[in-house]
Amino acid sequence: MAKSLSASGEFPASLSGRVVFAAWCWVLSPLFFVAEGITRAAWTTPYSTAENYISDLGAAHCGTVTIETAQTYEAYVCSPLHPLMNGAYITVGLLALTGALAGRAAWPRGRAATSGVVLVGLAGVGAIIAGLFPEDVNLELHLLGALLAVPLSNIGMLLLALVLRRRKPWLAAYTGLTVLVGLTGLVLTGSPDSGIGIGLAERLAGYPFEAWKTVVAVVLLVAWRRSRRGVQETGTL
Q1: How far apart are the C-alpha atoms of 129 and 146, rounded to whole Å?
Q2: Which end of the chain is more exposed for a tag (fewer CB within 10 A), N or C?
Q3: What is the mean pLDDT of each run of 10 residues along the chain (237 residues)?
């Protein structure tokens, strides 16, 4: 039977089976970093975390890619395990979307929470698009996916931080810090004279979201575990 905590104003507001399933989806987010590391290790040409886009790991062909955004980016890419990287984009995107949809009940009622969860889910859709369309196959759609993933995830997290500020202050503070790092990375990504490499800026913009989903998932799973333990202890009295 689903356990509802909404009346007490706690987070999570519910520990239903759907919420627990959502938590298991999000707790798998770090697999993205594992896939990235494996894909990077397969490169036979130099790859720089600071200077190369993450998207270079998903390039489907060997050759030079040119990306014109706020600054001109040009690099020779050759990624033997590009299907793994693109699969990671699609997988974490699906997990983000599924976790957002299934886990809505964990968050309090209200427009702010609903909007935040919707934006987090749409960020997952952006990751799926980026994985389906590598940078050297359809750059326009790949960039669209990135534009959905990074800004929307940060706006969504900001809304959820506001929702959590009284219910879970430490998690609200962590979420706010995550947004600050993500938005800083986003600004640096669009700043030609930022002083740091485009790859590092992109990672500052995108990595915090994956870490945040993992932390939220752990909070939900710990609450679920404690809830089950409490039920078992009550049953033995």
Answers
A1: 8
A2: C
A3: 50 93 96 96 91 95 87 90 97 97 94 96 97 95 93 96 94 97 92 83 95 97 86 51
Q: Which residues contact 140 (CB under 8 A, 6 or more apart)?
A: none
3 state SS for 150-218: HHHHHHHHHHHHHHHCCCCHHHHHHHHHHHHHHHHHHHHHCCCCCCCCHHHHHHHHHHHHHHHHHHHHH
pTM score, whole prediction: 0.89
Q: Which helix (H) or strand (E) segment is 219 a member of?
A: helix 198-236
CB 127 within 8 A of CB 145: yes
Classify the phi-psi angles of 195: left when phi > 0, otherwise alpha if psi is within -120 to 50, otherwise beta: left
- Positive/negative CA dihedral, 200, 204, 206, 212: positive
Contacts 24+ apart (CB under 8 A), 179-186: 179/154, 179/208, 181/208, 182/150, 182/153, 182/154, 182/157, 182/206, 182/208, 182/209, 183/154, 186/150, 186/151, 186/154
C-alpha torsion 216→129→90→179, nearest 10: -20
For 80, residues 6+ apart whose C-beta sits below 8 A from its C-beta are 42, 43, 44
199 Cβ neighbours under 8 A, 6+ residues apart: 48, 49, 50, 51, 52, 53, 54
